[in-house]
Design a protein that fits this description.
alpha+beta; 14 strands; 4 helices
C-alpha cells in the first residue's frame, strides 16, 4: 500500500511539473511572438509640402496679363518653412521613414520593441535604433542615432502615440553638438479622414521660440490649410486652398494691413474674393 501511495504521489508530482512547464512554455512563446505596436504614421512626422502649388504652375500663357501676388506671398511663406525643416530635420526624417522597411525585435527584459538599421543621408551613414514601449494605452518612442566615431547613441527624438493611431507628439533635438530641444511635432487624425500636424519651435532662448507652422485637411471647399505664426511680429498667416482645383485665399494682417481674405483662382492669379 505504501508503495502504491508513493507511486501515486510521484505521478502527481510529475504531472504537476509537466503542466507547469507547459504553461511556462506557453507564456514564453506568447511573449516571444508578441506583436509590435504599429509605427506612428509618416503624416504624423513629416509635413506635406508637396500638396501646395509650385512656381512652375504660374508659367501659363496668360501670366503677362495677371498677377500672382496673393498666391506668391503664400508660397514664399511655405517655402521658407520647407527649406528650414528640410535642412534641419534631414537625419530625423530619413531615419523615421526608413523604420517602415524593417521588422521590430522584442526584448522581454526591457519590455520594448526595437527597429535597428542603417540609413544614408547625403554621403553619411547613420546607425538608427528606434524603440517602442507600451505604457497603458500609449506607446513611448525613442530614436537613438550613431555616426561612426563622431557620436554614439544620441537620443535625437522621442515621442508618444496612442494605440489607436489617432494622435501623438514628437520632440526633436537640434543636433548631437547642440543637444537642446528644437521642434515639437503635434499630430492628430480624425474619424472623418481629416488630419493635421503642427511644428512648433521650442528652442530655449531662441528669438524664433514660439513660431509654428500648422498644416491640415478639412471637409470644406478649401480642404487644405497652413497656419503660420511669426512670434516676433505676433502675426498669424492663414492660407486655405482646394487641393484639386488649386484656388484659394490668404489672410495676413501684417502683410495686407487688414484682416480680409485675399484670393487667387485655379491658375493662381489674383482675383477679387467673392
Amino acid at each position: 500500500m505504501k508503495t502504491y501511495r508513493n507511486y501515486i504521489t510521484g505521478a502527481a508530482i510529475i504531472c504537476f511539473a509537466t503542466i507547469t512547464l507547459m504553461i511556462s512554455g506557453c507564456k514564453k512563446d506568447k511573449e516571444e511572438t508578441k506583436d509590435p505596436p504599429a509605427l506612428p504614421p509618416k503624416s504624423g512626422f513629416v509635413m506635406n509640402f508637396s500638396d501646395f502649388s509650385n512656381a512652375n504652375d504660374t508659367l501659363g500663357s496668360t501670366r503677362n496679363f495677371a498677377t500672382y501676388n496673393n498666391w506668391g506671398y503664400s508660397y514664399l511663406n511655405v517655402v521658407w518653412w520647407n527649406a528650414f525643416l528640410t535642412v534641419g530635420l534631414a537625419v530625423p526624417v530619413a531615419s523615421f521613414n526608413e523604420s517602415f522597411n524593417h521588422e521590430a525585435v522584442y526584448h522581454p527584459d526591457a519590455g520594448n520593441w526595437t527597429w535597428s538599421y542603417n540609413v544614408t543621408v547625403g554621403q553619411a551613414v547613420y546607425a538608427a535604433e528606434l524603440t517602442g514601449s507600451l505604457v497603458a494605452d500609449s506607446v513611448l518612442w525613442e530614436m537613438r542615432i550613431t555616426k561612426g566615431n563622431e557620436f554614439s547613441n544620441f537620443l535625437w527624438y522621442y515621442g508618444k502615440s496612442d494605440l489607436l493611431q489617432t494622435g501623438g507628439y514628437w520632440i526633436l533635438k537640434e543636433s548631437p553638438t547642440n543637444q537642446v530641444n528644437l521642434i515639437k511635432i503635434d499630430w492628430l487624425r480624425y474619424s472623418n479622414n481629416t488630419a493635421d500636424i503642427r511644428y512648433t519651435n521650442i528652442k530655449p532662448g531662441a528669438p524664433e521660440n514660439g513660431w509654428y507652422i500648422y498644416y491640415g485637411s478639412m471637409a470644406n471647399a478649401f480642404d487644405r490649410f497652413y497656419n503660420i505664426y511669426n512670434k516676433n511680429l505676433d502675426n498669424l498667416t492663414i492660407i486655405e486652398w482646394n487641393s484639386t482645383t488649386k484656388n484659394g485665399h490668404v489672410r495676413d494682417p501684417h502683410q495686407y494691413q487688414n484682416t480680409d481674405w485675399h484670393c487667387w483662382d485655379e491658375t493662381l492669379q489674383d482675383i477679387v474674393c467673392q
